[in-house]
Design goal:
Structural class: alpha+beta
Number of domains: 2
Oligomer: single chain
Shape: elongated
CATH superfamily of the largest domain: DD-peptidase/beta-lactamase superfamily
CATH topology of the largest domain: Beta-lactamase
Helix content: 10-25%
Distance between the termini: 58 Å
Strand order of the largest sheet: 5-11-10-7-8
Strand content: 25-35%
Order of helices and strands: HHEEEHEEEEEEEE
Number of helices: 3
Radius of gyration: 29 Å
Length: about 250
């Protein structure tokens, strides 16, 4: 269900988004006159939860070429298995729009992504309804909204998705021996020199810890075995560096 593998009609999907737009109350789409409207709607999520979902969806940047600004339309896109369906559903403070693109017989259309094909149609539909957007609902009174300074300590700093793969500037660095170095066995071991990293440090040789709780950045490793050896260092925050050397 989370990956979108459950069959759902466009009508059902629009009803679901309309319910979120209505603060978590179910909405039955209809084409009958107002005096034949369905019974009173039922609540399926709390007003706070509905607003939080809307707030997240409103933070998605509009598709390329769309005139709307971020925050004017809460929307989402999707692409079903095998490129059979390209979706986009969204709402402002007054209207809900759903877009489905695909073949009636379910034949795949390779490369038909919801974000590329369906989302621009969604935003064009909103432009045709009205050039101005109706503002999205304000948060309920009991919604928990905190500034960064009031968040728990680990959440004070938000990083981009790519930051998790970036090299920390103060991570430990092995300055000697250099990676790929070929050293002659001396009988005294191999000097290890480090820079940065938060103490204490752990030193591993070929994956096995040889020094723990090290509180200096210079040490003599008792290495005399001929051949290749990998030396790794891990600091107190789990950041690491490693080199591979060869002893002759």
């Amino acid at each position: 269900m989370a990956l979108g593998g459950v069959g759902l009609s466009l009508c059902d999907l629009v009803q679901l988004y309309a319910g979120i737009a209505q603060g978590g109350q179910s909405v039955m789409l209809h084409t009958v006159p107002d005096d034949d409207l369905p019974p009173r709607p039922a609540r399926f999520v709390s007003p706070v939860a509905a607003w939080q979902v809307s707030h997240i969806l409103a933070g998605i940047a509009p598709p390329k070429g769309a005139a709307a600004r971020t925050g004017e339309i809460a929307y989402k896109t999707g692409t079903s298995y095998g490129y059979r369906d390209a979706w986009s559903v969204g709402f402002d403070g007054r209207h809900v729009v759903g877009v489905w693109l695909g073949r009636p017989d379910g034949t795949p259309v390779p490369g038909a992504f919801g974000g590329v094909l369906a989302a621009p149609v969604l935003f064009e539909a909103f432009d045709r309804i009205s050039p101005a957007r109706t503002a999205l609902p304000r948060p309920p009174a009991d919604a928990l909204i905190l500034g960064t300074a009031h968040l728990p300590e680990p959440l004070h700093e938000f990083r981009s998705r790519d930051a998790v793969f970036a090299t920390a500037p103060d991570r430990p660095v092995v300055t000697f021996p250099p990676d790929g170095a070929v050293l002659r066995r001396s009988g005294f071991g191999v000097p290890l020199r480090l820079e940065a990293g938060k103490l204490p440090l752990t030193v591993l040789v070929n994956g096995a810890p040889v020094i723990v709780q090290m509180r200096s950045r210079d040490v003599l490793l008792p290495l005399e075995t001929e051949g290749f050896t990998r030396i790794s260092v891990i600091d107190a925050q789990g950041r690491s560096d490693s080199v591979e050397i060869r002893l002759d």
